[in-house]
Amino acid sequence: MNMKWLEDWFEKIEPKGKWSWLGSTYEAFHTFAFTPKTVTKSGSHIRDAVDMKRSIIIVVIALIPALLFGMWNIGYQTAMSTGADWHWLYMWWFGFLRMLPLIVVSYVVGLGIEFAFAQYRHHEVNEGYLATGLLIPMIVPVTTPLWQVALAVAFAVIIGKEVFGGSGMNFLNPALVARAFLFFAYPTHMSGDKVWIAADLWGSDAIAGATPMGELAAGTNPSASALDMLIGTVPGSTCETSVIAIALGAFLLLFTGIASWRIMLSVFVGGGAMGLLFNAIGANAYMELPFYYHFLMGGFAFGAVFMATDPVTAAQTNSGKWIYGLLIGAFAVLLRVCNPAYPEGMMLSILFMNCMAPLIDHCVVARNIKARESRLSRASRATRKEAHNG
Amino acid sequence: MKNFDLIKLPFSKENPILVQVLGVCSCLAVTAQLKPAVVMALSVTVVVVLANVIVSLLRNTIPPRIRIIVQLVVVSTLVVLVDQVLKAYVYDVSKQLSVFVGLIITNCIVMGRLEAFAMVQKPWASFLDGLGNGIGYSVILIVLGFVRELFGSGTLWGYPVMEKLGLYSIGYENNGLMIMPPMALILVGLIIWWHRSKNKDLCE
């Protein structure tokens, strides 16, 4: 397809003179459509097809199965609760209409703030928010009021990201900052059993219906079977319920190498080990829960695949990634089972380990330096001895 | 240093909370509501002013090796007095502030001013310095108390502002994060951000 007309149009509208303060907004849209005009021409540098824009777009694509399933599940849950006899397509359409305002609010507010900061500070608009903006509506209950979403997004982008210097400089995952803000600021909309199922197409009324973890926190066994939770036909945050849909995204992320397999695997290993440990103790019904239930319930899978693997906030060293992932999984299960105040531990566990990631990396690097030092001194001693003998 | 600067500098460019980052503990702990914040601000101001004046009067008679103990005795006496006055006249606030009145003794602003200023300056200058630092501390506490009570509880000095404005009926809700200490820290951070952007010479 000939895109010359678009390029010409971009040439024509390039801001000059008194409009030059709009430069970074122009730049953002231009590089969104075309490759950048200025590229490095000489010197040695690695050329790779994957840049930030592409990796972010791949994350967005990886989110689509979970998003589509989540939309259907919103309609399905409402239909189940009201006893309505809906076609599956209508269920999806219902969920689509419920999700759309959340997504639009998240993108408009978040990108608005991003663009404003980029203009004000004269730096480029980063693409990071394209993924964050989609993640935020996917991890909140469907009945969350829009103004609260807007506030949480503003908080996450400003306090979670821009004060540290924008994308790539944040130490906490911005999407989880938004969720944590909602969780602590408006707890009645984020937990309990009156938030997960939308009562009707418009409005924020909800039908009572507990999530599997809500039921466990209340001291009863989950009414949904493991298979239901695997497929995702249970109440929960909009798009976190289906482990199968999340797994599809995970395959894409792993296949393209965008997400670290070490982190993803170690989160599950850590969570499973903690679950088995609780099985061994077995003091109450929650502890006796089969360990794999923890993978299927709540946001564990979603967090492990899309949140813990955020390359900016995760540990950077390979052995650090193992420690980071293991502890995320272990803490998430620990919080779930032992702290009745927080039914879901995944969010807090990832945020906590986000804070610890630089420390983990520091220890790994320091240990490596020490190991190499001792290897070096051993080697030099050996050569000296050889020289002496020879 | 001009006398006016003694009041002006701690208010802005040498603000104990924003620039020296002292006294942050009480600033996060007591500002969930406006009333205790104001009472705390007044108490600290009274203590730091009086302690400054007393220590400045005594400064030539205090042996350097035991000066901290002498300062502590002066401060604790004043704090106990303040505590008794609060218990007598505003008992409910005194209960709300609980240990934090007693902890004024360890408030770094008080000890800091005594060590850095009152030990080497005349009483009148020490009085102004104490007043300036007290005001600098108070302003931040009152701003925090105002914002946190308004958005966290929807009231101001116990008066239900948000309810009278009719915001609840259109779906507004109080922000639970505002009444938690972490949000106070974030708010202090935001004020520092704004303050530094106005005073570029403070940026490292």
User: Helicity range of the residues of chain B?
Assistant: 55-70%
Distance between the termini of chain B: 24 Å
Given the helix and strand composition of chain A, which structural class is it? Answer: mainly alpha
Compute the number of strand runs of chain B. 0
Determine Rg of chain B (CA atoms, Å): 18 Å
List key phrases describing it.
heterodimer, A: 390 residues, mainly alpha, two-stranded antiparallel ribbon, 16 helices, flat, B: 204 residues, 10 helices, 67% helix
Report a brief summary of the structure.
The complex is a heterodimer of chains A (390) and B (204). Chain A is mainly α and 390 residues long.
How would you characterize the overall build of this protein?
By secondary structure, chain A is mainly α. Chain A is built from 16 helices and 2 strands. Chain A has a two-stranded antiparallel ribbon. The longest helix of chain A has 44 residues, at 346-389. With 204 residues, chain B is mainly alpha-helical. In chain B, 67% of the residues lie in helices and 0% in strands. In chain B, helix 3 packs antiparallel against helix 8 and helix 7 (108-118) runs antiparallel to helix 8. Chain A binds chain B through residues 145, 147-148, 159, 163, 181, 184-189, 204, and chain B through 171, 173, 175-178, 180, 186, 189, 193.
Question: Which secondary structure elements does this structure contain, and how are they paired or packed?
Answer:
The complex is a heterodimer of chains A (390) and B (204).
Chain A: H1 4-13, H2 23-33, H3 52-82, H4 88-121, H5 128-138, H6 146-160, H7 174-185, H8 187-190, E1 197-198, E2 206-207, H9 212-217, H10 226-231, H11 243-256, H12 261-281, H13 293-296, H14 300-307, H15 318-338, H16 346-389
Antiparallel strand pairs in A: 1-2
Chain B: H1 3-11, H2 24-29, H3 34-58, H4 67-89, H5 91-97, H6 99-102, H7 108-118, H8 123-152, H9 161-164, H10 181-198
